Amino acid sequence: MSQFFYIHPDNPQPRLINQAVEIIKKGGVIVYPTDSGYALGCGLGEKHAMDKIVAIRKLPENHNFTLVCSDLSELSTYALVTNQSYRLIKNNVPNPYTFILPATKEVPRRLLNKRKTIGIRVPDNAIALALIAALGEPILSCSLMLPDEDITQSDPDIIRDYLEHQVDLIIHGGYLGQDPTTVIDLTEDSPEIIRVGSGDPTPFN
């Protein structure tokens, strides 16, 4: 059975953040809040945890996983970014966008689809940013959308009913919106909007 932490959405308690990070470091899967609903997350190098996320979401083989970062300082470590793409990203984070970019060799191969791309995102959520800062690296994540649903889960009590035997920690960080991120593909010369969600697509048209 998973642990269940109540973490303040504006002033996350450091003790609980550190406990959550220890769960990630030990290979756990967590549910945590973002600025576009709740997400499933784990450590970058944790294959077993990633497999659990794939099973929970019933993800296809070509799914783009996302690295949730605290800022853009790690962008060039994990993604190949042109000057044009960097300006676009810098002008639109933190916000509910996921940017699809060519991955560097620092990204574990098992995270890559056939196109060898990776999602990058900087959320506007105090709990998510505190977790990443304490972990010292991005969280491997995907939106918490249950199979056959196209909305992100927004109610941590309902999430607990569904997933308390499948994840290691559920963080209650408030009741959130249900729209997933807006996904922008930046692998070509011009941005391509893959999915319209809670982020305004206007800057990329």
Automatic annotation (TrEMBL):
<protein>
    <submittedName>
        <fullName>Threonylcarbamoyl-AMP synthase</fullName>
    </submittedName>
</protein>
<dbReference type="InterPro" id="IPR006070">
    <property type="entry name" value="Sua5-like_dom"/>
</dbReference>
<dbReference type="GO" id="GO:0003725">
    <property type="term" value="F:double-stranded RNA binding"/>
</dbReference>
<dbReference type="Pfam" id="PF01300">
    <property type="entry name" value="Sua5_yciO_yrdC"/>
</dbReference>
<feature type="domain" description="YrdC-like">
    <location>
        <begin position="14"/>
        <end position="199"/>
    </location>
</feature>
<dbReference type="InterPro" id="IPR017945">
    <property type="entry name" value="DHBP_synth_RibB-like_a/b_dom"/>
</dbReference>
<dbReference type="InterPro" id="IPR052532">
    <property type="entry name" value="SUA5_domain"/>
</dbReference>
